[in-house]
Every structure is written in C-alpha cells, then in structure tokens.
Please model this.
Amino acid sequence: MSVAVAASSSRLWPVAMLLVAMCSIQSGASLATSLFPMIGAAGATAIRLIIASVLLLAILRPWRKAVTRKAWKSITLYGVALGVMNLLFYQALKTVPLGIAVALEFTGPLAVALLSSRRWLDLGWVALAIIGLVLLLLLGEDTAAPIDPAGAAFALGAGVCWALYILFGQKAGAGNGTQSAALGITIAAVVVAPIGVMEAGSAMFSLEILPLALAVAVLSTALPYTLEMIALPRLPTHTFGTLMSLEPAVAALSGLLFLGQTLGLLQWLAIGLVITASVGTTLTGRRTDVFDALMAQRGISFFPSSRPMKAGGSR
Model:
C-alpha cells in the first residue's frame, strides 16, 4: 500500500506544481499592470526579472555545481527567450485583456506541437486554432472595438518566445534542475534591464515601487519558473500538454477577478477553441513523445519524455 501511495504522490506532485505555477504567473501578471503607470511595461518586466534573479541566486546558489559548456548554451538560449517573452507579453497587456493576450501567446507552443505530426486529424485542430485566432483578432466584444493590432502582434511574438522557452527549458532543466531557473532568469534580467532603464530611468529603482515589484517578481517569476523547472522533466507528454492547455482560461479568470476585465461571448468561445485545439493535439497524439518527429529532424524536444524516468534522473 505504501508503495502505491508513494507512486501516486510522485505523479500528483508535478501536476500540483504546474497548476500552482499557472495560477501564480497569471495573478502576478494582473498585479504587474499596477506598475505600468509608474515605470512602464518594459520597466515592470526588468525590475521583476532583476528581483527574481537576486532571490533565486541567493536561495539556490547555482554556482555550487559546475555547468558544462553544452549546458550553458541551452541555459543562455532559455534565458534570452524568457526575457524577450516577458517583455513582449507585458507590452501586449497595455492594450489587450489578459485572457486574450495569453490565448494569442499560446498559439506559439501550439504551433510547434502541431509541427510534430502530419496526420489528417491534426488539420482539424489547426482549423480550430485558426478560427479562434480569427475571432480574437477580428472581433472584439459586442460593444467594443476589435483587439488592438499592435498589442496582438506583441502577444503573438511572445508566443514564439514561449515555444523557444519550453524547447530550451526542457533541455536546461533535465540536466540542471532549479539551477537552470536561477541562471536562466539572471540572463533574462541582463537582457531586459537596459530596455527597462531606457523607458523608466531611475524610477525603476524607486523604493516606492519596491514592495509591489517584489510581489510581482515572486508571483510571476521566482515561484512559477522554479516549479516548472522541477515539474517539466517529471510529467508525461499528455499530462503536461493538457494542463498547459488550461493557461488561457486561468488568465481570463485572473483578468476577471483582479482586473475586472469582462470578455464577450465570442471571445470566450475563441479562447475555448484555442484550448480545445491544444487539448486535442495532446490527447490524440501518439504514445511516443509529441516531439519525436522534431527530435529526429532538428534534434530538439518540447514536452518532457512520456517514458518512465530511470534511476538518477536519466531517461
């Protein structure tokens, strides 16, 4: 009985960590909009990443373990993708509701997932995602204007970076765990900090904004990305994909609860179509890794392996 309980616990903990990470990052995004009037979107992104990197460096002390040259490449790419992703996403939040911004951003990893299959069934999921995008981009609420084109472009650009973040994050996290989170976020902070200073100037380091910036850093960066680095190598493909598919819904609910952003019926429908396309892509995929085809063609992977982990963490 104890063995069964231990096995069940080992499966549930990564799921719980990923759910907490999703709720945390969307709550933090809602809170971050409070910083925009004071230091702008770029300043908010930069100070959030700077504080988060300091926290993770102090807590995790990644320098205690040597990092190979090969690992540094993945960690660096992961950090750059992370920094640009957050910068573009915050730019989108200035003019686009949180739930819609995440739905648009989510098309990045969804598109990469669909590249791994050439089955006719996946064309149906592509069609659903495209319909969802059309509804989001061309139709606003019944009484509002369509979605801001610049904001939508920022969200879609963040989606491309999100795909790269998971591609390189899985590689970095598999061999280095939370060490990758600390180093990757530090690299992200170095990349974004100059842009934040250019927009916000010295106001970015004002003591007045420090408590709010600290809360945003913990909720949006330090906590969720550490949890994701731990969970990514431990979750099977279908579980990870299905859970991540819920991200737009979590974002929409956070926008409603914390920002009072109400969405029209068509917008909820569009978000639902994007979620359905992602869930369908995950659940109807083959039993092998969703990205086996990409791994064979390009030597990269997206979701963690669905095969059992061997002793010592190797596959």
